[in-house]
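Researcher: Good morning. I'm working through a list of sequences from a screen, and I'd like to move beyond sequence-only analysis. For each chain I'm collecting a predicted structure so we can compare shapes side by side. This is the next one on the list. No need for commentary yet; just the structure.
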Amino acid sequence: MTTMKDRMLAGEPYLAEDPAIIADLVRAARLTERFNLSPAGDPAGRAILRELLGSLGADTMIRPPFHCDHGYQTHIGPRGFVNVHAVFLDVARITIGADAQLGPNVQLLTATHPVEPDARRAKWESAQPITIGDNVWLGGGVIVLGGVTIGDDTVVGAGAVVTRDLPPGVVAVGNPARPIRSVTAPS
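Model: Good morning. Structure tokens for this chain:
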């Protein structure tokens, strides 16, 4: 028998009120609360992150406060930096490559809800993964929606809303975010 958690992990519509999903949310909430009470850079905080997240690369720093839904769906490569007030709604997998830099208040939102009123009223949800390549810089307040891939070396300007894939090596801005030039072009 397929459970709601199985459906969630498979990217299918699911009901979040499932006891197994709630248990995962509670686990993540307890761990993020402990992490958020630790001073930035504290080794005890890093140990909490290793317990919380699916994977955490060497020399990657996440500054508290930080929020995620499940934790085990988030994988961050080495030498990254996640600034304060990051929100990772990791219902689906979030993959962040090596050397990525995320500014303050960045939101990675894999979760979505149906547009149809009856399905939304019935509390159905779903999610799509987010993939952020190596050496990506997301400026402060960037929002990335589910189903998006951001290519290596791309820079996304502060406040942008990324609704579609961005290729490698571009500077993208706006809502919705759109490439405006190559990262190698003169400014």
